[in-house]
């Protein structure tokens, strides 16, 4: 499927020569550095929301908008073929834009950077967003390895996905700062699903296991999620906005064009 990160159909995969000493992800790392600096300059809390297709990522953001109506929320939503999720987020009150990836099964930092150039998502001219959510393409594999300049990684895991997903997709869960166990309203109908077993499996792969349980479409259990969001926000506010560094400008000139105020 994905011919960008190398997990695609071998018949369609092009062979390219690479310097074995160079990180294949180094361009993405430079682009992510620019994004991270931009979020820091604007004092924005940027979160990368990942998870399987249908795990409830968009529903979680819709519920977040219902709960935090007064705060400035923005988002991009990655999707192979449609703008459905970004449309849903816009209807829910977020300032949002789609990133239609075509064949790519993940977002990379350049895609997020282009979306920010094309859409006034961060609201620089009218007071910054508080939170910028990056809803990644539904996939438990490739999105885990692409830095998008985010402050934290959140993985949505639905109770209907089974208890073994942390073991089957360890990289995704190892890189997660928070796992949101979604659709908990369905637990009474899933006698084989044990939340204790999910937690146990998370503890095997996640360095600091942290899981919140909620049912977004029922607005159930949102308090803990909202408290975690506030923790993230408080960290940004405590550090304060960052100034662009000479090192950043030098590295950015080889990667994504910086567009933040003062360095664009
Ligand atoms: N029962 C229940 N269904 C949910 C919940 N959250 C999401 N869903 C449903 O799960 C499906 C996929 O949700 P969506 O947010 O589109 O998932 P995404 O693909 O990860 O963005 C939709 O039909 C949602 O209505 C929940 O808390 N409870
Ligand atoms: Mg979605």
Brief digest:
This protein is an alpha/beta fold and 264 residues long. The protein contains nine helices and seven strands, in the order H-E-H-E-H-E-H-E-E-H-H-E-H-E-H-H.
How is this structure best described in words?
The chain has 264 residues and is an alpha/beta fold. It has 9 helices and 7 strands; from the N terminus they run αβαβαβαββααβαβαα. The chain has a domain of 154 residues: Rossmann fold, CATH 3.40.50. Strand 2, helix 3 and strand 3 form a beta-alpha-beta unit. Helix 1 packs across helix 9 and helix 2 runs parallel beside helix 3. Guanosine-5'-diphosphate binds next to helix 2.
Q: What is the helix content? A: 25-40%
What string, H for helix and E for strand, traces the elements in order?
A: HEHEHEHEEHHEHEHH
What name is given to the CATH topology of the domain at 26-159 and 222-241?
Answer: Rossmann fold
CATH H-level superfamily of the domain at 26-159 and 222-241: P-loop containing nucleotide triphosphate hydrolases
Backbone structural class: alpha/beta
Characterize the main sheet: 7 strands, parallel
Radius of gyration: 18 Å
* Large-scale geometry: globular
